[in-house]
Amino acid sequence: MSMEIFGVDIGGSGIKGAPVDLERGDLAQERHKVLTPQPATPDGVAGCVVEVVEHFGWDGPVGVTFPGVVTGGVTRTAANMDKAWIGVDTASLLSARLGGRPVTVLNDADAAGVAEMTYGAGRGRSGTVILLTLGTGIGSALFTDGHLVPNSELGHLELKGHDAETRASVKAKEDGDLTWGHWAHRVQKYLAHVEMLFSPDLFIIGGGVSRKPEKFLPLIEGIRAEIVPAELQNNAGIVGAAMAARGGTP
Ligand code: BGC
């Protein structure tokens, strides 16, 4: 029997969602996307989440990702979002705006990670696995024998006196007009630092760049762990959000 739950991915530029087929770990219908309002306040974004969910006439449980720390449904940080999110009970806010439907909220990289561990590049992998999403910021999901340690926030490690995501994210590559080689060197330094701390068996690299792994993965040297691109690419967040909503609050 196929089981569907709705997943929504809140990002700095877009809010996208679709019903997810949890048997296949894929979208059950083509996703719907709306642009993130600027400023991306809780109220404005909540309206967009409602729009995405209602586009499908969905009335069951909803899982939602957020690009910051989330504990017990409360958004705690907002590095690349409006600071008004800090301290908001986002799960309750969205549930109220969605007419009382149950809503589960989790970190965006954690969502992508649980999806990859079940349906993608981390399938069947034990030991320590770290998924890193390289995008506007750097998100992380840390697993030990398939169990998630939520909100690891490895994107904010210090790298040469800087917040790591300001050096090694895709935004840093674009803002600095860096060549693939230059950027790969920074990613290598970053991975070496994460490896020093956690000695993972596997790194999974997600985010938009996971579609062009040949541009930078061959340039990365001296990392002991295996490094592979994510497989679910830009639907991982939506799928992981739906998985979290099925399982209850992580
Ligand atoms: C946030 C993380 C998030 C990552 C990717 C970082 O700036 O602190 O919570 O997972 O960006 O969106």
TrEMBL record:
Gene3D superfamilies: 3.30.420.40. It comes from the Bacteria. Belongs to the ROK (NagC/XylR) family. This is Polyphosphate glucokinase. It comes from Streptomyces xanthophaeus. The lineage of its organism: Bacteria, Bacillati, Actinomycetota, Actinomycetes, Kitasatosporales.
